[in-house]
Design goal:
Elements: H1 8-25, E1 37-44, H2 61-73, E2 77-84, H3 85-95, E3 98-103, E4 105-106, E5 109-110, E6 122-128, E7 132-139, E8 150-156, E9 160-166, H4 173-193, E10 198-204, E11 216-220, E12 231-236, E13 240-248, E14 257-264
Parallel strand pairs: 1-2, 9-10
Antiparallel strand pairs: 1-14, 2-6, 3-6, 4-5, 7-8, 8-9, 10-12, 11-12, 13-14
Amino acid sequence: MTTPRHHRPWSLLAALASLVVAAVAVAPGASAEPRREVSLLQMNLCLSGFAGCFGDTAYPAVLDEAVLRVREHAPDAVSLNEACSGDAERLGEQTGYEVAFTTVVYGGAPLPCRTPEGRGVFGNAVLTRDAQVRRDEAPFASQLGSEERRWLCVTTTRDVTTCTTHLAVAGSPGATANQDAQCRELAEVMAAQGLRRAVLVAGDVNRRTDCAPVGAWTRTDAAAEQLPGIQHVMGTLSSLAPLSTEVVPMTRTDHDALLVTSRLRG
């Protein structure tokens, strides 16, 4: 006997359901473990237009070089010192990273970057591959000179916090005491942030001695060709195990870049 036509769709639906179940079972990444490695690229780009190192940047060549390094290494986060807000946004647009920028006050007001103008204001930035959900920032309590020094911390949906800072230069007894005070406050900031989640702190700290709090590790650019030892990356030991440290050569700024990779514990 011929099967009625209205019964045939049920067989077709059953076959399609089986295909969907099979597709879900073998979907790429369906049973993959979450990313455990966390990489951070620290760069000082000398972008203000006022510093003596700016002539060698051959702007915009320095920014093109930074984009290239980010694309080459694809870090989870990038920390930028001596940046400009417009340049940080351009770097984020060209690499697909989300940008958090903190403006550094100079002589009591934001400092517009120059040569060329129209690049925004001077400051520091954190760029992340993952979406940003929280931002904390503040100037250090101890300040000396015209340039304000401050810190910025950004937390992503991955529940990892990345911070950056650019500490004051030491030299005279007063300047050294000022830098030491900023270093101690940075350790306090990192310790407080680390109570809640994994934390990485990176920056040009303008010193070779450590600013990390108890229970943290530090890696530096001591192997760099340019101004070695003063860029640091620090991580919370309880939540991050350091894996590798690499100095990444830079030709258009007076600091090489520092790439540090760690692994989430647990």
